[in-house]
Write a structure and sequence with these properties.
Length: 200
């Protein structure tokens, strides 16, 4: 009896995984807000200009954001994004700055400029026994300069997130990657050294 149950389990797992399609990171998936706990006082204004983020040379395809395992044999499939990585991260940082109370202005009027470089933006599935996991990792540098181009603050921001499933974790790939991204942005505004530099 136990052998039959195990056989049926494998048949069901094969059927479910065979139906899984390769996920894609769509622009609308990123519509959620970033959780920001500390903000600029209402009476204070800090005008900033967003230079934008670049992608490290180690990232060969700026539209590739992960690897899913689909089909009955869990073959690897590339997960792609509608937008390139530098636009995704730039927009999320911009959301965070806006929620924290920063004011966006033209470069000539800005007190500070924000830029950075993306080192990693990736989600992948791992299989161990009867459990599959989606593991996401986001890592990028944030650089802030004053209007003379002098370095005000710089740091590496990093966040990880994981989801588990006993059948097929593919459906969790994109949500897990987004959680890691938003966690990374939130951590920027939890850094005391960041706020100390901003308040000078």
């Amino acid at each position: 009896m136990s052998q039959r149950i195990i056989f049926l389990f494998f048949v069901m797992t094969f059927a479910i995984s065979a139906c899984a399609t390769v996920p894609q990171l769509k622009t609308k998936d990123l519509s959620g807000e970033v959780s920001i706990k500390k903000t600029i006082p209402h009476e204070k204004t800090i005008p900033v200009y967003i230079e934008g983020f670049t992608v490290a040379k180690t990232i060969s395809n700026p539209f590739a954001v992960g690897e899913a395992r689909t089909g009955g044999f869990n073959l690897p499939e590339l997960i792609l994004s509608d937008d390139p990585l530098h636009l995704i991260v730039t927009e999320e940082i911009k959301k965070g700055l806006h929620k924290a109370g920063f004011t966006f202005v033209e470069k000539e009027k800005a007190h500070l400029s924000v830029s950075g470089r993306i080192e990693r933006f990736w989600v992948e599935e791992r299989i161990g026994g009867f459990v599959e996991t989606a593991n996401a990792s986001v890592r990028y540098d944030v650089i802030i300069r004053d209007r003379q181009g002098r370095l005000v603050w710089a740091n590496t921001v990093e966040a990880r997130e994981m989801a588990k499933s006993s059948l097929d974790v593919t459906k969790e790939d994109i949500p897990t990657l987004i959680k890691a991204l938003k966690k990374s942005v939130a951590s920027l505004f939890e850094d005391d050294s960041f706020w100390k530099a901003m308040e000078q």
